[in-house]
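All the exercises in this workshop are built on plain-text protein records. Instead of coordinates, the fold is spelled out as a row of discrete tokens. Once this layout is familiar, the rest of the handout is easier to follow. The record below serves as our worked example for the rest of this section.
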Amino acid sequence: MAVAQPWKRPDLAAQPYLKKLNDELHDLRLDAGLLSARTIRDRIGEDAQGYWIVNHQAVLDSFQKPELPPLSRLEVIVGALTEAARRNDVDGEVDRFKDLWTQAARETVAQASVHPPIDSPASNSDDAAHGVAEAFEDLLMRGIEDTNGGTTRVPPVGPDTPTNAGHIAAAQFNYAEESLKGLIINAAQALWHDKDALRVFLGVVRRSEGFAKMADAVEEQRPANATFYGVKSREFEVEHSVAQLELVRLHNVLDEHRLKRKWSFTDMEDQTGVSADAWIRWYTYDELPKREALVAFSHVAHLMPEDHILLLGLWDAAHDALERQKRSDAMPSRISFDEAWAMRDLSASRLWALAGVGDDGLTVYGPDLACGTAPAFVVAGPARSGRSTALVNISRSLLEAGTRVVLAAPRPSPLRELADRDGVVACFVGGDIGHDELKEALSAASSEGPIVVVMDDAEVLDKCDARRLLSDVLQHGFDKGMALVLGGNENELQPSLYWLHGVRRAHRGLLLSPQERNAGDLIGIKTGDSIINSPVTPGRGWLHLGDGRLLAVTVPR
């Protein structure tokens, strides 16, 4: 029975940072019980096509070769060993090794710049870049093997490899290009059985001079397993589409029906009349297909009514998400209150309140507090999203129309600066509102002379002494000439069990830079993933006026 033992460490005396990385890797293997290379390979596992993500020889090379291993290969090896060593913080250990790798990479590049390869002059960057491309193509050509002979792989580069040493030295440091090469091979591997798609894909690859030979090679023979290159590395992640989740679901459902019928993209062209190139582009670039193409697909595939409805429903969701983002991007970056107020409808009710300007920069929107399911309107968003500015605009528009207001700002707020304006009945600035004080402030309210309570940081006043009176405004405000506009943090408004809970009956409001998936519950509409978790942009928001439409608006300031 073989006895586990330490592996020979490479001589890295001239590269202290790389030596530290290598020593730490050997120490981690020791803590994990001196696992064999094949055991580490097994722990990392296989990819979707059944290939080892990292083969055992690549594992050995990472420990024993006097060179910097690819970062993504290092990540999965460290992850497997950390789990085997029963350490709790796997991500933390991976991040620690990434830091060590970064230091070693800088050291290696710095040494290469001081001692450039003899046959790769540093003064000629174009020649060097061309040499890198040639080296990668050479590596690829030697890695393409006939799959009939067994498992395919791309052999690692070593000091004894019979090729241009200067080019290889340069190539070893361009890990972004190494990963791109792996992605190309991976795509070709996945498309191997769909020759039409493979033909179109390789045609795109051939447009790049550096990868033309690669495309010719994989045209003839099935390419080697791309995950050998560690293309799962997180350092090459790209920003998702704003409708990423919606598009993924749509493509998955569409692909499920396509694969069930064993249709290639050429078959889909023959069946639907939509070009194979269009279908491939929609898949490759994660684009939204044309609705007519989905209708045609549903017809020729003889989908059941429920499947047809699901497919078009997913299309509508993705389309709405993309359109909302377009409208948001097209909004004016800044507009003043006076400019926005001049665009209002002069025939509007005096309880109409200015909430925002639409994406065309020419249309203003806001709620009419004289009608609706409840006399209320909510402004919600995280800190520094522009809530107080929106409340100031609403208050100013009501005052300009001759409507009286009661202000409440338990925390410092620009709303307090309106306290001396004509038409402001009262301004409460404490952490509580007395029942009798609010009752007196609202005593003069009537259908002919309404009064609106405008409240900032409303979550602070959820349990205030006047909560029953505020609850009464929400229930009977239409009859008594009263209405309520409130703003607050979306996280803190959600769990309310007191009078604040009743504002949801209004089913309308303004969400500013929403961060929570259920933020739309505050204003009576479901919000898709495409409009949440974006960076907080003061004054940019989504308005719902109770009609089921979500409008992108800019808050005047």
Summary: Residues 156 and 334 are 56 Å apart (CA to CA). Residues 113-173, 226-239 have pLDDT under 50 and may be disordered. Strands lie at 356-357, 364-365, 376-380, 404-408, 424-428, 451-455, 482-488, 509-512, 540-544, 551-554. The longest strand covers residues 482-488.
